[in-house]
Design goal:
Chain C: It holds the Pfam family FGE-sulfatase. The complex is a heterotrimer of chains A (about 475), B (about 210) and C (about 250). By secondary structure, chain A is α/β, with parallel strands linked by helices. Helix content of chain A is about 25%, strand content about 30%. In chain A, the strands form five sheets. In chain A, strands 1, 2, 3, 5, 7 and 11 form a six-stranded mixed beta sheet that branches. The two termini of chain A are about 65 Å apart. Chain B has a single domain, classed as 3-Layer(aba) Sandwich (Glutaredoxin). Chain B has a seven-stranded mixed beta sheet, with helices on both faces. In chain B, a hairpin with a 5-residue loop joins strand 8 and strand 9. In chain C, helix 1 packs across helix 2. Chain C is elongated. The N and C termini of chain C lie far apart (about 60 Å). Classes of the chains: A alpha/beta (about 475), B alpha+beta (about 210), C alpha+beta (about 250). Chains in contact: A-B, A-C, B-C. Chains A and B meet through helix 1 and helix 3 of A and helix 2 and helix 6 of B.
């Protein structure tokens, strides 16, 4: 078959198409493939060329103005560096472009991206890149495995619009990601995004250090923590306080804000929320579907979300992961500072604080001595007995001669509470001597009844038809049940 | 003309001391004429033998483009396909151009693929033309050639090889002009590159 | 008169210095006999087989140092920096040397540069060196077996940022097999480019088929990030590459 296809390719080169396909009866796919390859080349040759503008977080490159595709050249350099995870805490970061997350890449649907990955000669490790915007094996990872001191290149077409994570996929992959090798690439839809006043770049990541949160010094990566999914730090943009104080992101009252939110992982999913704000629009998972009026949106590990909201009121609005221990104990906190005058018709702030007189909340509880089985328990027990036991033991507890032992005035029943509980739980088969008479039958285990139910039934039978006993508690049933295991 | 002769003589003389005590086979054993260009594969030395049992130095291939593939003769599945692809490339050339191209198949199983085994293999596949050479080399040189070309081959426990399937095009200088990475890429691409690398006039004889 | 004396003194010092260098280089490298054993490499070179018999072999106790390499290029001029064609070295061959036959100068940090492990050498050059000693480069399996290490303390070099200066050969504590300077730099192995083959040769052994995404399904020890890194590193190399962090040592059959 292969031979034919090869001769077919050359046949179509040298002979007329009709003769080639007609003679050999082979479908046109091979020829079509070859033609489309040539067409692709031709199309590529005519595209205007531009260099991508790459930005450091939290800044985002400007919106794309052109309405036609271009060949965009992206040059990204991997840098391994020691940086601050928190005040006094250093970490060996691996990065795309010297920041965590790496540079923000912005292209347009249909663009051809000529991607250059450079691995600085001073780096220890080989690196590559998998961009989720790429349609192709490994997302580019196969084509870009780069030794230190080398540069690799590949070209892809941005087929789908959306906001995509990119990350290193060199082994061990989780470690490369855990060290900070992730970022976002935005592929604007053909029609562009609606203009907003401010756009910002935020990526959450979990970090795994030998020491606990806050332990000072150069902290090594801890593989076991990573496998156990027990991060010591969960951070926006690679460090505690990356968007706090002077580094807070800002907007003016009345402006529209768009956040490009990513989650590099490696492990955790984020419940992204901005305290005091509601997302007017959420492009769920960075795709094309827009949800409205969302308080908290999920950002998958290795995924993204685009959130848009109008800031109507001034103040500090806190970006958090609403898996809230992370925010308060592991550093997932950023601040959006909105300047402007008060907007009382939307939010007044505190209007008053006065004394509140109330009734005592807690009534003293009277402690009562142990009482004989109360009415309620007996009633419940009776109902359950009738439903589950009376078929054999009869409603008057008389049983059936020779087969089902009586419960009324039963010496066997009353002699050993625990034994009776045990039988109710496990059932019984074989001979029994009750009140001097032998009974030989099979009682099924009452496995469908829980401790409370069995307790009430046993209480009822031990206090009816002349039996005088005490209540059986659910705890007692539980104890016997446990022993039986 | 004189300059070239002198240059050649100088090269030969400078090579002499290195030749005298050289245990490494990593440089051309003699440098007649110009040195190979920087990236030419013909810097690779070694005593190779053709399937016709003739000694061959790689640099003797200089002057015509080379279509090169590596395989082993005991290979049942993939290697015949590689060979068929190389034949197809030859067929894709105009007949006048075929003589201007060399087709070189190197075995990465030199222990079993002796020159006579290679001769049988060539015959079995109906290859008689003089511009085809099946080469036997020492395992050291074969592994170097493989490494330089990025061709990977690994013996398994059964004595078969797991290997990659590139076909490489060398230009008239012996530099890698193109590599077809696998059996999936259409042959037209390497064929076009080959046509672009054919010598324009008759190559001078060595 | 003074000029002549000066020149003589200078020449004497030069000869004496060279003599010392040659001394350092000429003392034959101690080799360690690595005993035979069974080894489970991080990635198996043979699909379906996890454990491998490694035959006993000799391994240099420490990496080749600059003094030794200098002696080699002195003897084999075709391996001098200015002589090696791009086919055999892609650039930056012995880039830290001052010239074909002159080593880097001593500095505050590195008082004896001639005793540092030589780096910036390509596979072709490393092979030629071992050849000239009637030795060879170790096979990947041999190297991994001899260098096998799981203590994270000893593997910190792989995750620490910054390359560090090339190791002074033969100084850091040896491992249990008596081998020095492991896991302070990368080392060439003879069959580096056979790392990671796919099971199906019809696929064409695409470079990272098993590596990319870590393919932890087939890795022996998922905790051993250093082993992952080494395999990834070897798979990214070409025989002509010359890297700051990459040196070598030689091996010999019994």
């Amino acid at each position: 078959m292969r031979k034919h296809i090869h001769s077919k390719i050359f046949g179509s080169l040298l002979l007329t198409t009709a003769l080639g396909t007609g003679l050999l009866g082979i479908p046109n796919t091979a020829q079509a493939q070859e033609t489309s390859y040539q067409l692709a080349n031709a199309a590529l040759a005519n595209l205007p060329v531009e260099n991508a503008i790459l930005t450091t977080p939290p800044m985002v490159p400007p919106a794309i103005k052109r309405k036609t595709p271009a060949k965009v050249i992206v040059e990204l350099e991997v840098q391994e560096f020691i940086g601050n995870l928190a005040d006094g805490v250093q970490y060996n970061f691996w990065s795309f472009g010297g920041s965590v997350p790496g540079k923000f890449i912005r292209v347009r649907e249909g663009d051809r991206v000529e991607f250059h990955l450079k691995n600085h000669p001073d780096n220890k490790s080989p690196h590559n890149i998998d961009l989720h915007a790429v349609t192709g094996p490994g997302g580019g990872a196969k084509a870009t495995m780069t030794a230190p001191g080398h540069e690799t290149q590949f070209t892809f077409q941005a087929l789908n619009p959306g906001l995509y994570i990119y990350h290193c996929a060199a082994p061990p992959v989780p470690m490369h990601i855990a060290n900070g090798m992730y970022g976002l690439i935005l592929v604007e839809p053909k029609e562009g995004l609606k203009p907003v006043d401010k756009e910002y770049y935020v990526v959450q990541g979990d970090f795994y250090t030998k020491g606990n949160f806050g332990e000072p010094g150069l902290q090594p990566f801890d593989m076991q923590r990573g496998i156990d999914e027990h991060p010591s730090y969960v951070l926006f943009n690679g460090s505690v306080g990356s968007m706090v104080g002077e580094k807070a992101i800002t907007a003016k009252k009345g402006e529209t804000v768009r956040l490009f939110v990513g989650n590099g992982g490696p492990n955790l999913i984020s419940s992204f929320h901005v305290i005091g704000e509601i997302f007017d629009l959420v492009y769920t998972e960075g795709g094309s579907l827009a949800n409205k009026n969302v308080q908290t949106t999920l950002v998958p590990a290795g995924g993204s979300a685009i959130v848009e909201f109008k800031v109507d009121v001034p103040g500090n609005f806190i970006l958090v992961d609403h898996s809230i221990f992370r925010t308060f104990n592991k550093g997932t906190l950023g601040i959006l500072n909105v300047s402007g005058d008060a907007q009382a018709d939307v939010f007044t702030g505190q209007q008053s604080d006065k004394v509140y007189q109330a009734q005592p909340m807690h009534k003293p509880v009277a402690t009562t001595p142990a009482t004989p089985p109360d009415q309620k328990l007996m009633e419940t027990g009776k109902n359950l007995f009738v439903a589950n036991c009376s078929a054999c033991h009869q409603t008057d507890g008389a049983g059936m001669p020779g087969v089902f032992p009586p419960l009324a005035k039963s010496d066997y029943l009353m002699a050993d509470k625990a034994r009776s509980i045990g039988i109710a739980l496990k059932g019984h088969s074989g001979q029994l001597l009750v009140n001097g008479k032998t009974y030989d039958g099979v009682m099924p285990a009452m496995t469908h009844l829980n401790d409370d139910q069995l307790a009430s039934i046993l209480t009822y039978i031990r206090n009816s038809w002349g039996n005088k006993g005490d209540a059986v508690t659910p705890a007692e049933v539980k104890a016997v049940r446990a022993q039986q295991k | 003309m004189k300059k070239i002769f002198l240059l050649g003589l100088v090269c030969l003389l400078t090579a002499m001391p290195a030749l005298a005590e050289d245990h490494s086979h990593h440089h051309p054993t003699s440098l007649q004429g110009e040195k190979p260009t920087g990236k030419s594969l013909y810097w690779l030395g070694g005593q190779w033998k053709t399937h016709q049992n003739q000694k061959l130095e790689l640099k003797s291939l200089k002057g015509k483009p080379v279509v090169l593939a590596m395989l082993y003769t005991s290979c049942k599945a993939v290697c015949p396909l590689i060979l068929e692809d190389v034949k197809a490339i030859e067929k894709g050339l105009a007949s006048a151009d075929r003589a201007k191209t060399q087709f070189v198949i190197v075995s990465f199983d030199p222990e079993r693929d002796t020159p006579s085994v290679l001769a049988d293999y060539a015959q079995k596949h109906g290859i008689r033309a003089s511009n085809w050479k099946f080469l036997h080399g020492t395992s050291k040189h074969v592994s170097e050639l493989g490494a330089l070309l990025g061709v990977r081959f690994q013996p398994n426990a059964q004595g078969d090889f797991i290997h990659s399937n590139q076909i490489t095009l060398l230009n008239v200088e012996g530099e890698v002009a193109y590599q077809r990475p696998d059996l999936k890429e259409p042959l037209t691409i390497i064929l076009e590159k080959l046509k672009a690398n054919l010598p324009v006039s008759h190559p001078h004889q060595h | 008169m003074f000029r002549q004396v000066n020149r003589l003194v200078f020449q004497a010092v030069l000869i004496g210095g060279l003599g010392l260098l040659l001394q350092a280089a000429q003392a034959p490298v101690e080799m360690v006999k690595v005993p035979a054993g069974v080894f489970t490499p991080q990635f198996s070179p043979r699909p379906g087989q996890k454990d491998f018999q490694v035959k006993s072999f000799w391994l240099d106790a420490r990496p080749v140092n600059r003094a030794e390499f200098l002696e080699f290029v002195r003897k084999y001029p075709q391996w001098r920096r200015s002589q090696v064609p791009p086919l055999f070295q892609e650039g930056n061959y012995l880039a830290d040397w001052q010239g074909d036959l002159s080593l880097p100068l001593p500095s505050q940090e590195v008082k004896q540069p001639e005793l540092q492990a030589v780096t910036g050498v390509s596979w072709m050059a490393a092979r030629a060196y071992c050849d000239a000693q009637k030795k060879r480069l170790p096979k990947l399996l041999e190297w991994e077996y001899a260098a096998d290490e799981t203590d994270p303390e000893k593997l910190s070099w792989y995750s620490l940022v910054g390359i560090g200066i090339p190791v002074q050969a033969g100084v850091a504590a040896p491992n249990q097999k008596g081998i020095y300077d492991l896991h302070h730099m990368y080392e060439w192995v003879d069959d580096f480019n056979q790392v990671i083959m796919t099971n199906d040769s019809r696929e064409g052994a695409e470079k990272d088929n098993q590596l990319f995404c870590g393919n932890s399904g087939s890795a022996t020890d998922r905790m051993n990030y250093a082993a992952f890194t080494r395999y990834a590193f070897w798979s990214s190399l070409h025989p002509s590459y010359t890297l700051k962090n990459l040196g070598f040592r030689c091996a010999r059959d019994l």
